[in-house]
Specification:
heterodimer; A: mainly alpha; two-stranded antiparallel sheet; 14 helices; flat; B: 626 residues; 7-stranded mixed sheet; 6-stranded mixed sheet; 23 strands
Chain lengths: 360, 626
């Protein structure tokens, strides 16, 4: 780390609150201890806030989905041969014949022990349904997340550094165009071009699903990778513009700074000035965005998962909502909200380590 | 301070890195496209002779499985799979739906109509080698009668059963509380007692823990991945004969356009419409020489239902249906002003048959048509006269009742059904010409206002089974809710003494011809009442690859559907094309080798480029690396 780059917490501990030089080792130790204490208090406050938010989500999820004007039992058995007795029996099985307060207390009580009940339509524990679909979602959105974040940061840096150039204008316009494209439409287009094949382009990828079935070992891994390509490209294409724009604007803010002039005056190569001096400081807003996006990784992507028949949480949430399968929809909502809250809390906890001005 | 942006020429390495990044992306693509042992342009599940010489039929379905337990499954996808896994007591002939033997070879009622005796075939074996007997059937029915969880899906079939016994391995005896003519139409999968008696909680057991699943149908379920696929293998010892395809795969496609693309590519052999391919999809597929678009009379009817005045079983009125619709003349006037032909041509784009009686024409035994004098054909003038007679005179451009209030109606529409919305626009126009106002109220879930009786009219539709008992029963007084606004078996609150008497009569009539006659009388009553107006019978529109499926039985056999039949005929009878092992899939030609070549070329370029860049980077100066 150079003297010009971002002062981190450790470095900051060498100065007291007024920014004066340390008076001696004891004072420095005290200042460090005080800083750590302040930081730990800050972390504790954030974690407490997260716990309160989680409980609020738990309560909200129960009432939110009961606002949907729907009869789950009738919707589930729609078009089938069912008698009034069967409908009544199903209502009893699902606990829908209980008073609302009783349903609520048992839901909260069970949820606190990690039991989100049994799905109405799939007759299996909600937790099982979620853990079944979660890996597929994490694989798809996680891969896409890493790629679009990296691509966004990399292109954002370059477009800002060449602000106003033709490549800046082209890259920004192109990213914004893709950002505006409906993901399901782009997905279908990719299926038509790269799955079915069009003109001289051969069909190279499967039209949907996560696997062909029956593969094992390395062949299975490659088969899944083969199925992953098009949905990931779709998500990356519509997703990288956001990171690019944030990175670009924050780097543009840094570009007039004196410390960059100093770095150049030292004779450093422009490439080094950008990578080692400008980008680390410009990364702070992007870092926030990365954690916001990270929270959404778990929620899956309903449209892309639908187009590519991906067996993830997005599709499961859609199926749950259409009934509404109350236990499943509540469980999924809680998981999605938890992911966002945890990601935000993690960002809050880590941020002071990157920017000492925060949390004081 | 102005920051000087170095000219692009000052950054030679950036461009190289761009190249590297593009190359890396291409490499990722290529890596994904070169899968050992897998031709790139073709799916591994084609109906072709694979390495092991097996033929596979892959069906693209829109639904995923809700449960593999026949005691729990509600979705058509799941019940279709159960028809293949387990035999039923009886089956329906694909030609004309008449009852044919299944697990039972004979069935006969006692003289007092309250006891049915079934003879169970001696040549049906479970896939684990054990004999299927009457004991299995008796156990299945008894379990449904005594365990609430086991009655979840098919409890209505045993509601009228008093006692079920198996006096011998080949004799099943069912005693009834009341006579029931539908005893040769018990659509209940019979399960192996020795496997299922180990199950604890039937409301939670999904039958998806141990594969292959023990069954005795034409196919044995061997593998299942949630939300992805269901795999079955042919049951070589099936008593009716083994299926021609070795393997059958139901693959979930959540998007129908993607499923159509998969068919075009040859990745699937068949696409089931959900419920039908759109006219645009059907038209685009018709141009493909290896694809056959199969269109046949559907099993659904599409109707307009009027609110006859919502009430509970004990006659307590509720809801806010327009009182004008209690007058039969008004109801008939509305239906006289609907141009069904225009709806068939413009909305269904020809993929439907004009509606007449309550039961679709594919069920020929029960199909009924109004006589010429009875028919409510498109006749706005007659509709206007009927409205005048009913006391709704035209004032300016509005129909006004005796109370001086204009005749304004609401129609409940399914927000997810484009046909509802399109027909709603036509109704607005046609009824507007008569002076009737119409509000089209589209909802994601119409069941709440519907069961609260808070509607005037509603778009309605049902799938009809070969035995019409159920769709007739939903209009009886006993189907009304016990409490106001509670969902019940009723379709739309019809409760009429004449109709109810006819319903009971048909259920107790064991002579098929006489019973069909009573059913037709019910349809005639329904038509005249104006409570239900059948607008159309939408066709089943589906497609399959002729280079993968040589022939397949539709139901009805002359012209019918393939997916979701009342039986296993389609998948059991399907014959693979090109039995010599050569597959004619269009997607194969050129796709695979070209794709691999492209992939390899890209990979080589990327690796070479990457190596070159690394070599250059090694030569960076100390100053550059700080």
């Amino acid at each position: 780390m150079t003297a010009d780059s971002t002062p981190a917490l450790v470095q900051n501990a060498d100065a007291d609150i007024d920014g004066r030089a340390p008076a001696g080792p004891t004072v420095a130790r005290d200042a460090r201890a005080r800083n750590i204490k302040v930081y730990l208090q800050y972390v504790a406050a954030k974690i407490a806030g997260a716990v309160v938010s989680l409980f609020a989500v738990l309560v909200t999820s129960f009432f939110l989905f009961r606002l949907i004007p729907s009869d789950p039992v009738k919707q589930m058995t729609g078009g089938r041969r069912v008698s009034a007795e069967q409908l009544q029996s199903l209502r009893h099985q699902f606990g829908l014949d209980q008073p609302l307060w009783k349903q609520f207390t048992s839901y909260v009580g069970d949820a606190l022990t990690g039991d989100f009940g049994t799905s109405f339509q799939f007759h299996s524990p909600v937790i099982d349904k979620i853990t079944e679909a979660l890996p597929a979602t994490l694989l798809l959105t996680g891969t896409a997340y890493v790629l679009y974040t990296a691509l966004g940061i990399w292109l954002g840096t370059r477009t800002a550094w060449r602000n106003g150039s033709r490549s800046d204008r082209f890259n920004t316009a192109f990213a914004l165009t893709l950002y505006s494209v409906p993901s399901f439409w782009l997905g279908l287009l990719l299926i038509i071009v790269f799955s079915v094949g069009i003109g001289p382009i051969p069909g190279m990828f499967p039209t949907g699903g996560l696997e062909s079935g029956g593969e094992t070992g390395l062949a299975y891994v490659l088969d899944v990778a083969h199925h992953l390509v098009l949905p990931v490209i779709t998500l990356v294409a519509v997703g990288y513009a956001q990171t690019l724009l944030v990175m670009r604007s924050s780097l543009l803010d840094e570009m007039g700074s004196d410390y960059l002039t100093t770095a150049r005056a030292k004779g450093l190569r422009d490439d080094v000035v950008r990578r080692k001096h400008a980008v680390p400081n410009a990364m702070l807003p992007t870092f926030t965005l990365m954690f916001v996006n990270l929270g959404h990784v778990v929620a899956g992507q309903i449209l892309v998962e639908t187009v590519f028949s991906w067996p993830g949480l997005g599709g499961l949430f859609y199926q749950a909502l259409s009934v509404p399968d109350l236990p499943l929809v509540q469980g999924l909502f809680f998981v999605f909200a938890t992911a966002v809250i945890l990601a935000n809390t993690l960002a809050d906890v880590l941020y002071p380590l990157l920017d000492p001005r925060v949390g004081r | 301070m102005v920051t000087r942006v170095p000219p692009p020429s000052a950054q030679p390495r950036s461009r190289m890195r761009t190249l590297l990044a593009s190359g890396a992306a291409a490499l990722a693509l290529a890596a994904g496209s070169i899968v050992p042992g897998m031709p790139v342009g073709a799916a591994p599940q084609q109906a072709q002779a694979a390495d092991n010489g097996k033929t596979t039929l892959t069906v693209a379905v829109a639904q995923s499985v809700d449960s593999l337990s026949p005691f729990l499954a509600q979705r058509l996808m799941s019940t279709s799979v159960h028809r293949l896994m387990y035999d039923f007591l009886t089956n329906y002939d694909p030609k004309d739906n008449h009852t044919v033997p299944g697990l039972a070879t004979k069935w006969e009622p006692s003289a007092d109509k309250l006891t049915w005796t079934y003879t169970i075939r001696p040549n049906s074996k479970w896939s684990d080698g054990q004999q299927a007997t009457a004991e299995d059937a008796a156990w299945t029915f008894n379990k449904m009668m005594t365990d609430e969880g086991a009655a979840t899906a098919n409890g209505s079939f045993v509601a009228n059963f008093k006692k079920v016994t198996a006096p011998s391995p080949e004799k099943l005896v069912i005693e009834l509380k009341q006579p029931q003519a539908t005893m040769a139409a018990l659509d209940v999968p019979i399960v192996p007692k020795h496997v299922w008696e180990k199950v604890g909680d039937f409301s939670k057991f999904n039958n998806d823990t141990k594969f292959p699943i023990v069954g005795n149908g034409p196919y044995i379920l061997t593998d299942y991945k949630v939300d992805q696929y269901v795999k079955l293998k042919a049951n070589k010892s099936f008593w009716r004969g083994a299926p021609k395809f070795d393997e059958l795969v139901f693959k979930t496609y959540k998007d129908q356009d993607a499923a159509v693309a998969a068919l075009r590519k040859g990745e699937v052999s068949f696409v089931a419409g959900a419920p039908a391919l759109t006219p645009a999809q059907a038209a685009s597929l018709k141009g493909d020489k290896n694809i056959k678009v199969n269109e046949g009379p559907g099993r659904r009817f599409f109707a307009l239902a009027t609110n006859p005045g919502a009430q509970t079983k004990d006659g307590k009125k509720f809801g806010d249906g327009n009182k004008a619709l209690l007058d039969q003349k008004v109801r008939q006037a509305l239906f006289l002003s609907i141009d069904r032909k225009t709806i068939i041509d413009k909305v269904f784009q020809g993929h439907a048959v004009e509606g007449q009686g309550y039961i679709p024409p594919r069920f020929s035994d029960y199909f009924w048509q109004p006589s010429d004098s009875q028919k409510l054909s498109y006749d706005p003038d007659r509709a206007g006269k009927l409205l005048d007679q009913a006391g709704y005179k035209l004032k300016g451009d509005q129909r006004v009742g005796k109370d001086g209030k204009p005749l304004d109606l609401r129609i409940l529409c399914h927000a997810t059904d484009p046909n509802d919305k399109a027909i709603g626009k036509y109704l607005k126009e046609w009824w507007g010409k008569l002076g009737i106002g119409l509000k089209v109220d589209c909802r994601d879930d119409v069941s709440v206002p519907w069961y609260a009786g808070e509607y005037d009219l509603a778009f309605d539709g049902w799938s009809v089974n070969p035995d019409p008992d159920f769709v007739l029963g939903i209009h009886t007084c006993s189907a009304l809710p016990a409490k106001a606004k509670e969902s019940a078996a009723t379709d739309n609150f019809i409760c009429d003494k004449t109709y109810d008497e006819l319903y009971k009569k048909q259920l107790a009539e064991y002579d098929p011809a006489k019973r069909a006659d009573i059913v037709k009388q019910m349809e005639s009553w329904m038509y005249d009442s104006g409570y239900m107006n059948i607008i159309a019978y939408p066709n089943a529109v589906e497609a399959y690859r002729t280079d993968q499926i040589k022939s397949i039985t539709t139901m009805p056999e002359a012209a019918g559907n393939i997916y979701g039949q009342d039986g296993y005929w389609s998948w059991w009878s399907a014959v693979p094309a090109a039995a010599d092992g050569k597959n004619g899939s269009a997607a194969d030609s050129g796709g695979s080798s070209t794709g691999v070549v492209i992939g390899i070329v890209v990979a080589v370029v990327v690796v070479a480029g990457g190596g070159f860049l690394l070599a250059r980077r090694r030569r960076s100066t100390a100053e550059e690396r700080e």
